[in-house]
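ingest -> fold -> write
write: protein_1
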Amino acid sequence: MKNVVERADAASKPVTSLSDPASGPADGWEDVADEFIEAREQSTIGVEVVRPWARALPRGAAILDLGCGAGAPIAEALAEDGFSLYGVDASPTLAARFRRRLPQAGVACEPVETSAFFGRSFDGVVAVGLMFLLPSDAQRTLVGKAARVLNDGGRFLFTAPYQVCEWVDPMTGRACRSLGEDAYRALLDEAGLAFVGNYVDEGDNFYFHARKPGRVSVSDDKR
């Protein structure tokens, strides 16, 4: 199993001050932020999956990027395609770099589990390289939160190994865990999301794609 390091109207977007970041832990990523940024800026892994996924969303759709890192290459690619990006990352260094890279995007420096962005709605939610970094209970909670913030017809895309497994992240030394395909699909169903399909990118990362039933609509602040 390969796990490539992946941790993806500006005035209307709430932004957490990067000079006074949220108090939540950066989960080890702050210590390796520079190394992580260098690795992701040299990679396009994931873009070939995320771009086709986003084409099913309305033009200019609002997308929440959970564990956004420094914005490269996932959020950057989506912004280039005309989508409205909102990123969340607990690392002050990564969140600050995201803000510099994508000045028109909203960004919050806070733990994804308690992000204030869950207080609004989105057309898409993406979490590349994040889910398996969280404790099992937090993963289950996050799936439910992602489902609740989606507009009707909205889409959720995240990565996690298809098998049930545990390993140590080589960059941060943190324990990682995948609940496995059956568990993730059950969680999506419990959250009221319809499973669409699985994808594998060039780095052998495994994706889950789900859709919220209903007519496609755009976020409240895009109407």
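write: protein_2
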Amino acid sequence: MAAGPSAYRPLELAAAKSTAVLAYWWLALAGALALLAMAAGAVVVWWLGPRAPAIGSMPRLQAPDFQFHVYASGPVPGNDEVRHLSDLKGKPLALVFWAGRCASCGDVLSALEDVQKRSEGRLAVLAVDVGRPFRTGTRRQAEQLLSELEVTYLAGHVEDKASVGEYELRRLPTLVFLDSQGRTFHRWEGAIGLGDLREIVGALLRSERDGLSGG
């Protein structure tokens, strides 16, 4: 007796189900391979992308001079005295460009207070507010932040972008570490942890002690 069409239906359904399961696993495998490819690409971009220079490996070039108006010299706020970066030669310097509305700048300013005190007078700090020319904060916001943090090191502001144009500021905060002769030692862009900051300052002070800043 010949089998009717309905006799083959279970076989057809089983074959269709098997094909669907196989298709599902192929799609899952393709998705996993795509994720692996994306991860590998990210690793390659990270590996080949720009790296922060090793501490102290920057060419020892004279830092561009500029004038700034003082917010505070020690505990004295807002006297607007005009100073120049070159006035601060003679001691290693941590120079930070920041602004009142910069989210991570307050933490960096506080960390600089810590490392300056730990240096026992061997490190100078200059905090330069670029908020107004870069539209990232006002003078009032900057002075309020300095007051809240009880900053004791030298802080001031610049009137225009051109005065610090040679520093090519792309992110805030940006820190530039100078040796006692006013030459670049290291540069850091963006937020920085206290540990990294202490490491850089320690290397800077050791280079001075060992006479490595000599020309």
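write: annotation protein_2
Residues 42-51 have pLDDT under 50 and may be disordered.
The chain has two domains: 8-49, 67-209.
pipeline exit 0
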